Amino acid sequence: MVRDKSIRWALVLGFALGGFFDGILLHQILQWHHLLSLVPGAGDLTRQVLWDGLFHAFMYLLAAAGLWGLWRAHRRHLMPTGAGLAGALALGFGLWHVTDAVLSHWILGLHRVRIEAEAPLAWDLGWLTVFGLVPMGTGWVFLRRGQNNPPGRGGAALAALVILCLGSGAWAARPSNAPYTLAVFAPNRPPEHIARDLANLGANVVWSGPTLQVALLDVPAQERWALYRHGAVFVSGTALPAGCLGWSAAS
């Protein structure tokens, strides 16, 4: 039963890696769609970039949870290894794409794989097959083969996964070709203090929530890191999922 719980954390990590792959390739590199491309009233490119940034922040949280669970299993010599670990990661990776296709593409209608294609359903089905069903099937086979493998510490595998997640997160945090920076501030940060600090940094607010806790900014690239000193917990383009200094910044 304990080992099954460790497998679940690998599934969570694979799910997050699937989200990173989707966001990096389709949102940023190919630019086939944004998270809310088909949502009426979702706004122009600035708000689309905002929601893409929030999506990547959520993937950070899932990846961190998966790594934390595997670290605990590693400490107790219960981490899945070999085919079991590879199978769980592949199964989670494919599960993300199946979930995205069914929920985001067809039920909620948030976007399609390639919106401007003449046959968007064909692209949806092709993507679902190649990156969803095939990895899930392969992962299931590997997972069953790895059931008899004894669990262990898996230190090298865990280190490789940490590097992979950090690399994926760093790429996802890179700013897109739109010259804007997404910043999320600590909930205890007063709006008037956020406004004051943004003005001191020379940052112009392109869009924000009602309390400035989430804001899309036109800010000089060299000043992005300074946002962490002023209460930000996430700043796109800094390769960090959250700013450690942000939570402790004095108001």
UniProtKB/TrEMBL annotation:
Presence of the UniProt keyword Transmembrane helix in the record = yes
**The name this protein goes by in its record:** DUF2243 domain-containing protein
Transmembrane segments annotated in the record for this chain: 7-30, 50-71, 83-108, 120-143, 155-173
**Record InterPro entries:** DUF2243_membrane (IPR018719)
Q: Which UniProt keywords apply?
A: Membrane, Transmembrane, Transmembrane helix
Q: Name one matching Pfam family.
A: DUF2243
